[in-house]
């Protein structure tokens, strides 16, 4: 693994939490924190900023894992995977609404957890890259002016009629409506014509 990946475990059963910790270490990741409540998860996240959170749903304390995960996503943008023994329709519906990067039903085998972590980290990386590309595209679009549609141009003098009905030199019109710059030169055909005129 090129970079150290820090994973937080939020699980109120000590034995299960230790099993998850060993599975995470076996998969080659680092465990940044192990906490037993949603409240503790929020405190630990601000201190250590993990790359991924493994979140049980039913926890000690006032806050369940779904509420904690929702706050983590909203405030920190850190991806999370639910690890729970609950698969009833209501729990899944609530969990689904928070946009988890995975949902594993306990008990699970180590390989399932390893794959879920790998997929979540990859998906999060792709989302970050996509968001960065969108930002760059928006910035590029604000820098680019475009010419489009039908442009009325005089067949003789090559001036362009503006929306206000005035006739403007082609160069000036293009410079106003795009980011194009002009460098002046003379083409071979015009050069030859001028030479012929001069004799």
Question: What can you tell me about this protein's structure?
Answer:
This protein has 199 residues and is of the alpha/beta class. The protein has two domains: 124 residues, Rossmann fold (3-Layer(aba) Sandwich), CATH 3.40.50; 62 residues, no CATH class. Helices cover 49% and strands 14% of the residues. It is built from seven helices and seven strands, in the order βαβαβαβαβαββαα. The strands form two sheets. It has a five-stranded parallel sheet, sandwiched between helices. Strands 6-7 form a two-stranded antiparallel ribbon. α3 links the parallel β3 and β4. α2 packs parallel to α3. The radius of gyration is 31 Å and the shape is elongated.
Can you tag this structure with a few keywords?
Rossmann fold; 2 domains; five-stranded parallel beta sheet; two-stranded antiparallel ribbon; 7 helices
Please give the count of helices.
Answer: 7
N→C terminal distance? 76 Å
Number of domains: 2
- How much of the sequence lies in strands comes to 5-15%
Tell me the CATH superfamily of the largest domain: Response regulator
Describe the global form.
elongated
Name of the CATH architecture of the largest domain: 3-Layer(aba) Sandwich
Task: Examine the coordinates and then state which fold CATH places here, giving the name of the CATH topology of the largest domain.
Answer: Rossmann fold
Largest sheet: 5 strands, parallel
Are there runs of 5+ residues with pLDDT below 50, and where? none
Radius of gyration: 31 Å
Helix content: 40-55%
Strand line-up in the sheet with most strands: 2-1-3-4-5
CATH classification class of the largest domain: Alpha Beta
Number of strands: 7
